[in-house]
Design brief:
Strand content: over 45%
Strand order of the largest sheet: 7-8-9-10-11-12-13
Largest sheet: 7 strands, antiparallel
Structural class: mainly beta
Distance between the termini: 41 Å
Radius of gyration: 19 Å
Shape: globular
Number of domains: 1
Order of helices and strands: HEHEEEEEEEEEEEE
Number of helices: 2
């Protein structure tokens, strides 16, 4: 183990494999998927990009599972590309039932600016809400660092939109409201957020708002 740690540079020590040849290391993304996706599952969406600044393309993906005798679920996985080749499973979310009864779904998954962006949508008879969660490796943890929620109310009497942008690191919350054809009104406020971790992500639009 001492020899393994010496190979890893100080800057990326926390991104090194946690085991020498354990179940968290895979020769390729395909090898990971073969070991993880069973008959009732499928890869719902995936993205590639550099998450730790080493110039290598890492991978994030969402597995959708539909058991015959249970509700469908989502689970997010993060794989880091290793300098010596292969991938290391760096983090994964809980496997959680998809909220709602057909009203909620994952829309997209991206990697940019060393962050994972995942958008989930929810709708009712009169409203549509899109929530984009931003996860990043920060101070030794895969944390939720940003959240944007765009809510549209299609009520005929008073159509309105509310665009909320939250920075969970600084506490800055920017709200932009618009009702009908009136000019949008922007308000800034501060909020003290607790720490939300990727491993606890449940794919609900409200994750990170408390």
């Amino acid at each position: 183990m001492q020899k393994l740690l010496l190979v890893c540079s100080t800057a990326f020590l926390l991104f090194c494999p946690l085991s020498i040849a354990g179940q968290d290391n895979f020769s390729s993304v395909d090898a990971f998927l073969k070991s993880t996706v069973k008959a009732e599952g499928r890869l719902s969406d995936s993205a590639t990009g550099d998450l730790n600044g080493d110039g290598l393309k890492d991978w994030a993906g969402v597995i959708h599972r539909q058991p015959a005798d249970a509700s469908p679920t989502y689970q997010l996985f993060v794989l880091l590309r290793q300098p010596q080749g292969g991938f290391h499973l760096a983090e994964k979310s809980i496997e959680e039932e998809i909220p709602g009864m057909g009203c909620c779904w994952m829309e997209s998954l991206e990697i940019r600016s060393s962050s994972i962006y995942i958008q989930n949508n929810a709708k009712t008879a009169s409203t549509m809400e899109a929530a984009t969660h931003q996860f990043k490796f920060h101070k030794g943890e895969w944390r939720l660092v940003g959240l944007k929620i765009y809510l549209t109310d299609h009520t005929p009497q008073a159509p309105a939109t509310l665009d909320t942008d939250m920075n969970l690191l600084t506490g800055l919350v920017i709200e932009k409201r618009q009702k009908g054809n009136n000019k949008p009104v922007t308000k800034n406020r501060r909020k003290k957020f607790v720490t939300y971790l990727l491993k606890d992500f449940d794919f609900s639009n409200g994750f990170g708002t408390e």
